[in-house]
Amino acid sequence: QVQLVQSGAEVKKPGASVKVSCKASGFTFTSYAMHWVRQAPGQRLEWMGWINAGNDNTKYSQKFQGRVTITRDTSASTAYMQLSSLRSEDTAVYYCARDSARVAVAGTVYTFDIWGQGTMVTVSS
Amino acid sequence: DIQMTQSPSSLSASVGDRVTITCRASQGISNSLAWYQQKPGKAPKLLLYAASRLESGVPPRFSGSGSGTVHTLTISSLQPEDFATYYCQQYYSSPPTFGQGTKLEIK
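ok -> structure tokens follow
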């Protein structure tokens, strides 16, 4: 079935980096853009950026520009999100999500129809 | 960035009730509005997009309307599985932004 499976929870110290993976199955990975969205405890969802899994193009939220890097491995149908210079405010659940449209057909529409289960990242000294 | 504000922030209702949640954008977003449902400890689930289009597999008791700056989500007859938090999201301009959520609780 169509699904995204993310890597497990992480605990990091301030200043460190974290890399979260998102493995796709049940659909053609390279036909879609993959987004990353985070949710701090009790807070609203926050979009971080996306990668076109077909051509490797990326776009990041200005808020995270310079700290976030989204990559993909087409042979493994996996997207990755790395966040550096971590601070306590980065404690959140990080989700990958598939864009609703095939990128070659409609571009990136920025609605999210398939989500990973989420990865809790805790930043604490 | 476009700011999204939902009202109410929480709502108590009973099974069978009709409920409406409102989402206001800080500027016009045409019909570029999606609604998600999130249950505790789970990822969000897409319910509607383009303000009123139902995602495949979503029951027709969910409906959406609106254009411009004011949008609504209506659940015509609440079922036990509908008690959750609902988020609106605009995708009119980047970055896409979400409302703060409306928690729907059992009365």
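The longest helix of chain A spans residues 103-106.
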